[in-house]
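Example 3.2
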Amino acid sequence: MAMATKAPVRPATAGSTLSEAEFGEFQRMIFDVAGIHMAASKRTMVAGRLAKRLKALQLASYAEYWQYLRRDPVEKQTAVDLLTTNETYFFREPRHFDFLRNTILPGHSRQQPFRLWSAACSSGEEPYTAAMVLAQVLGKAGWEILASDISTQVLAQARTGRYPMARAEKIPQELLKNYCLRGVGAAEGTFMVEPSIRSRVDFRQINLNIKLPEVGSFDVIFLRNVMIYFNTETKQQIVARLVARLKPGGYLIIGHSETLNGFQNGLKAVMPSVYRAGS
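Structure, written as tokens:
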């Protein structure tokens, strides 16, 4: 006698439907965890990014996936990683690095180590760019970089310091030659940030939406191209936390498309997107 078999679950795909109610659950989750407001226009993006997890876990719907990640904190972090990863590249918004090289660093007394925090570092291009500039101006002694993100996935990638060769196109030739290594053999087509530079960057998972860990104070904090994802109240809270970590006279640098109008927390605008704390 033939035995009946259970019909296999058909995993969801990128084309599966994410209902408005289901999208609302993910919206609330990412806001509660990271303070990020995900507009209704992001519904297709959310469906596409999470579909790979539904397929990997053999789940048939986004509702099933929502229930799964509610039970599994590791999977919840995976979902946060997928939904908060943003594009970045070396020497993005280069005027900020020119300002760092030509204005901020010449005024550094060198009596204490120069400390810079890349507070939403993604896959590492921003802190490694800053590290090349600091190495070029300050040499080997007297500087350190903290690089943080909420996503464990991008932090793991950043720690390797390895990127496709196409990512090197905006790195000035002198810095590329001095601080990067070309991949050979199995690594051909990639480059790696030189170990002496990588060792000066401390990558840590930090959620800017909650009380910050003890990280010390900084001469410069980069918070670029991330505040566009926060509502006004969350922006105010995050800026206040970071300003409290600036040394007297320290600089907070945000993205060119962003502004601190209305909640500068005692900062003075030096130029568009660059603010300075009182001495």
